[in-house]
Amino acid sequence: MSKKTKQTFEVENGESIEDCLNRMKEAGYYPVKRTEKPIFEEKIINGQKEYEPIDRKIVFEAKPLE
Prior knowledge:
The chain is 15% helix and 58% strand. By secondary structure, it is an alpha+beta fold. The protein has one domain (7-64). The two termini are 14 Å apart. The relative contact order is 0.34. The chain is built from one helix and three strands, in the order βαββ. The radius of gyration is 17 Å and the shape is elongated. The protein has a three-stranded antiparallel sheet.
């Protein structure tokens, strides 16, 4: 008997969180953990580097439905 491992699902551009959760359910998984990471853009203002958040990356860790 093989053991299924965890899988990750990333919210794609133009996709809502609900759409991602539905896609996960259709694939036979349910979410167990949500991770958000900011995406920064480097800008030079007055000769100094500054980082501004421009977007975020949302990833769900999922386990198989039983």
